Amino acid sequence: FPSHDSGPVHIARKLGVPFVSIWGPVNPWQMMRKESLIPEREKVIYYALHCSPCVHLSISPPCNGNNICIKEIDQNQILNSVAQIIPALHS
C-alpha cells in the first residue's frame, strides 16, 4: 500500500506483511532499525543523496521541490525488489 509516511511500514512489520518501501527526503533508518529487517520479506529503497534527508531538517528543501531523491530512484530496482518479496507473499 502506497503512503507518504512510515506508518504503513510499521503496520506491515507488526502484521508480518511483506513490503517494499521507497524513501526520498526522509532517512528510513531514522524511523526503523536497519538490523531488524527481514531481507526476504522487507525491502527498503533509499539512495541517501547529498541533500537527503531534508525533511524534518530543513525549512525548505534544498532541491526547491524538484524531488531528485525520488526522481533518481530506478524503476527497475523497484520491480526487482517487488519480485524478490513475491515468494514471501505465499508463505
Structure description:
By secondary structure, the chain is α+β, with helices and mostly antiparallel strands. Helices cover 31% and strands 11% of the residues. The chain contains three helices and two strands. It has helices at residues 7-15, 68-71, 75-89, and strands spanning 19-23, 42-46. The protein has a two-stranded parallel sheet with strand order 1-2. It is globular. 10% of the residues are buried.
Task: Give structural attributes.
91 residues, alpha+beta, 31% helix, 11% strand, 3 helices, two-stranded parallel ribbon
Oligomeric form: single chain
Helix coverage percent: 25-40%
Computed over alpha carbons, the radius of gyration is: 14 Å
- Tell me the number of strands: 2
* Count of DSSP H/I helices: 3
Major sheet, described briefly?
2 strands, parallel
What class, by secondary structure content? alpha+beta
Spatial order of the strands forming the largest sheet: 1-2
Write the element-wise H/E pattern from the N-terminal end onward: HEEHH
List the helices and strands and how they pair.
Layout lengths: L6 H9 L3 E5 L18 E5 L21 H4 L3 H15 L2
Parallel strand pairs: 1-2
Brief description of this entry?
This protein is an alpha+beta fold. It is 31% helix and 11% strand.
